[in-house]
Amino acid sequence: MATGKKLNLIENLAYRLLKLTDIDNITLRNAVRHFATTVPAAAKLLDAGAGLKPYEQYFQHCDYESCDFADCDQFYSNIDDGRRHNIAGRHTYICTLDQIPVPDNTYDLILCTEVLEHVPSPAAVLREFYRIMKPSGQLFITVPQGYGIHGEPYNFFYFTRFGLDLVLKEAGFEVIAIRERGGYFYYLYDRLANAIPRIVVGYKKWMSLMMLMLAPVHIFLAYFFGPVLLLLEPLDREKRFTMGYVSIARKG
User: Fold this and answer.
1) Which ranges of 38-71 does DSSP label H, i.e. alpha helix?
2) Pick the CATH number of 40-182+242-251 from 3.40.190.170, 3.40.140.20, 3.40.50.150, 3.90.180.10
3) pTM for the predicted model, two decimal places
4) Which residues, other chains included, contact 88 with Cβ-Cβ below 8 Å and sequence gap of 6+?
5) Which residues pair with 177 in a beta bridge?
6) Does residue 118 contact residue 49 with C-beta atoms inside 8 Å?
7) pLDDT tens digits for 156-191?
8) What's the farthest any 2 CA atoms get from each other in the chain?
9) Considering only CA atoms, which of 157, 169, 72, 83 is closest in space to residue 121?
């Protein structure tokens, strides 16, 4: 029993280390935090596909509501190493994102982060966002380009900047900005920093022990070799390889 507790402690410490080196999560959080500073007080905001609601804390000054779909508990247990979450009870609405049970012109803003790749019809979801958004309302949306399969079987699409621009405009939105979340070297660092979890993920029984044994390799990749990659990031001007995109669009 004592050995089991020690291994669980090791595993928890390893996951904390991974969070510190998760540049994908860091760039997402920074983008949302910056967006939140531009949101007026008391604005009515919907966090669409909010899951664990990791960004709710940044919108305390807003009239914040959230929604997710009926199978979200199972979905998040699939992408969070089998951990069980009571997601459904946390949200204002449980619904699919193409049928949100609110009247037209309800929200000043919609936040939708890393969700569009998980819906069967991104076009239908964006049309629904357009319907429920007030005139001149803003949509803040992020989508991945370089990412592994996750949340299966609900993982249908990945996006280029041109694909994201296309589906937004076809839904009626005016695209204000689309920018990359890092270029090739950010992308490469993210893949290297996640190498150890990819190795051990299939070995549930021995995961904690393997994390301990491989931790020095992870530390080297993340803390010694990683910064070299990040320093090279300004050299990538085209950013054809990226973790994903952040976009702001407006309802006309």
Assistant:
1) none
2) 3.40.50.150
3) 0.83
4) 68, 70, 72, 73, 94
5) 248
6) yes
7) 999 999 999 999 999 999 999 999 999 999 998 888
8) 62
9) 157
